[in-house]
């Protein structure tokens, strides 16, 4: 432990300026305070970079310029991350020492007095940009990691993004309304975190996976335009881009048709991106139906920063004599092609790699057609005529130098495999404009998906999603064909949001619950209050929720959600700094009426 | 259940205007949508009040003015809380039918077309102002209760208050930073809500009682100005004015001395009150030390909307021959007086009531002195001379017509009893200006209080509070005399906030933990990461947290916290609408590695 004498402990040295405000103060005596971020000792002169949250300033300790002797000696003892307060005269730097890389690069402070406010041990890693440090160490010492400029920039960006969303929504007459954190477990969806009740032993609150039901009830209550930047919880096994608690911008409106809502949301994003990043988004944003997104890109969240859509080549397949093509079509499957620009000269080894890639996704192989300078060469040229190959090049709009990859099989498998291959090629071939923000609405999702494990249909979004009116008659007998009034916003291949118009009539909601396999009793028990609410004058309503952690990650140009959250958890949902979770005391458990099934630790 | 034919189900009738925007549209054809809030059938004419979230508008169905016959018939079927959309021509009302009480009282809509969007059952209570309904029913049907204008006003006010705080803080370079909800149990303070971990059986997260430690770590991390509108949790037995989850405005700053911080907070409140209520607060706000607040008002959160301070009358007591006065002083107690203006004529019965009131607080009785028109009369005139009584009137600054109440005994008991009596009299005599906002800082709190149950000192605020420098030498041997650099903001007798400067050196924090009875091991185990953090260059810092639920309640002029929260819990921490908490499934418990101690339900 570092001891420090009382004389060093001057509470609250009052700075006169933040560093970023110094640019206009040349010639004045100022007082600044912050952290030592670098120190260079040239003997008669000592330079120190002082950091506060607004920037960095060069301090000069120089006897010849009037720094008192005892301050020179004190400067000699300063080390990185010491907290100091400094009084001095702000001067222009000599021309040859100007540092154009930082905002204060043309000024420096000639020190008259320095106060040591607090000492610092040598930190476990450097407090600077782009360090290569094990993330476990960064998370354990998060308070030091958060000192680094890139983390400060990201949290500042996060704040600005949140503020801009609120500004836009407040201007558009939305009310932010808080909904409970201690609420009720609901089925359908991820696993809940639950909280034992002390007053009702054996009963539990659930932390919300989203404020879905509350926001719908606020529509019943006539608020018409609601939003909330809400903390939500899911007790799922964590992937790299998941956190047990996450933040979403939750929105619900009444009397607003889908088109109007999506238009308003587009304007909101345009406002936020212009205000925070100075980026002008092109409106309206693109839209694709779910069916088209799957057909063209093999994904319900395609990255449209590059094109490379699939082209189905049924005619070509039928004209060929290739057995697997015919078999695929006979079995109701598809034959589809991807054009890989400029890759006609791919080697056997490179092509094998691509084939291996799709095999991992369940395809049996890839047919390849390369339009080389000496002509069109193909792995299946025994089964097609040169004319057929030429017509194929026309069909898929390939140019000389391009490589065409063809896959056949069950539709779902082929689409997913070719979609993944498309993404891999986009990245490998640097087809992606990393600076672009490519927004896309995917609409008309299926209302249900079939859960093999449960042996029944489950709601693709959630059980409150309004079916498309024209598909309503299919609800009982062909649920797989019912489309939802649902829309996702996709940014650069990431699903940013999920939204839908909601059911607002009791009888339709009851049909929906039946379609999901709820008995009347179960529906009544779980959602009785909601069914009741629908009978007291519920307006047509719908909404959307945006994942803000991911949005901030994309806006910050980062790759990890954890870098966009001040105090994130690891993939095993632990907090390495505070060491949470941690054992409860026997008294706590007794008070809550619960016990542990096995003795631990 | 209400059945409705498909024809009634026109999705999303697109309104052209909110009601509040209609004032400029006389003569135009408009479409509005909302809820039927009142219907008067005069035979040939039907009037309906239509409500949306912005106001109420009178609809006129009148054949003679051109309402089609089938619309007249439809109007006949409409009932309260039906959702409708209406097209018509906006006209000025006849002079004699103008309603000056509502904003749209001079206009009405002559209906051309009405769409029935959704029906409604008869609600269990009227959707209007100031209803007298059992709160249990209001909470069960919260979605209807929230439709009432006063609830809508309060939630709108809440939103405006939150927005105004954010505006001010954003303008002053604060960053809003979110801290975790799934965190670690900390000792000292209220009971935690805990959340079992699925991945680490036997371990638990705690929901935060406040972001205290995180915000201090953000200061270590150099953010300097942090805020968060944060949800916090306390599993305590609930009083009328407590909720298991509550919202606080949490603030922390570095390098900012107490005076600067309090000044900034005062300006923040002035900004919010001016912006939201149009009320100009007088700055600077009053300040009292804790010692003075207790001495003058017998409370650490005095209501200063009226004066009536205690005046100690030791000289008078010594000069009297009244045994209890002498005994009180001999035992180190006090004799103190309250002047009750204009109550010299109180009857014996009225005086008995006051005496009974203070007896409930542990006093043996009250001496009374009434300055009536015929002279000064006292319950103790056998023990004092008329001259002494006259001098007493001078000491306590009583006027003719006033009643003086005198109590003697142990200081703590007397102060509390007389403080409570002061409040009661203030209310009973209508001395309180109900429209006033009387802010007060109470400063220099004791650092510790003695917990009789635990048999040791506990932190009055929390264990991170900085002692006053001049009292530091008392920390080990006279902790009861150490004052804290702590400050509470009081509004109209309610504690709005609690704040302090924090300890920022490891050795002082360790002394503090020792004074609180922590062993080195315990301190290390619970707060090791914080003690470590203090060694890496921690700036001087301090902060404050404001209870926003209560603030909104006071600004809305309400008496119940529950009326200021969209979905509150009852005093037994239940949600009557959703029926939470509720039993977990056996699978949920097994997954979490916990079991119930007793079988329930």
From TrEMBL, chains A, B:
The annotated region (Aspartate) lies at: 212-215
Q: Which CDD domains match?
A: AspRS_core, EcAspRS_like_N
Per the record, its GO cellular-component terms are: cytoplasm
InterPro entries named among the record's database cross-references: Aa-tRNA-synt_II, aa-tRNA-synth_II, aa-tRNA-synth_II/BPL/LPL, Asp-tRNA-ligase_1, Asp-tRNA-ligase_1_N, Asp/Asn-tRNA-synth_IIb, AspRS_core, GAD-like_sf
What are the alphabetically sorted keywords of the record? Aminoacyl-tRNA synthetase, ATP-binding, Cytoplasm, Ligase, Nucleotide-binding, Protein biosynthesis
Q: Record-annotated residues binding ATP?
A: 234-236, 243, 495, 547-550
Reactions catalysed, semicolon-separated, are: tRNA(Asp) + L-aspartate + ATP = L-aspartyl-tRNA(Asp) + AMP + diphosphate
Residues passing through the membrane, by range: none
- Origin: domain of life: Bacteria
Residues bound to L-aspartate = 188, 234, 461, 502
Documented EC number(s): 6.1.1.12
GO function terms (MF aspect): aspartate-tRNA ligase activity; ATP binding; catalytic activity, acting on a protein; nucleic acid binding; transferase activity
One Pfam family per UniProt: tRNA_anti-codon
Task: Report the enzyme's class at the first EC level.
Answer: ligase
What HAMAP family does the record point to? Asp_tRNA_synth_type1 (MF_00044)
- What is the similarity comment for this entry? Belongs to the class-II aminoacyl-tRNA synthetase family. Type 1 subfamily.
The job of this chain, per UniProt, is described as: Catalyzes the attachment of L-aspartate to tRNA(Asp) in a two-step reaction: L-aspartate is first activated by ATP to form Asp-AMP and then transferred to the acceptor end of tRNA(Asp).
Q: Quaternary structure?
A: Homodimer.
Name-wise, this protein is: Aspartate--tRNA ligase
Source organism of this protein record: Alicyclobacillus tolerans
Name of encoding gene: aspS
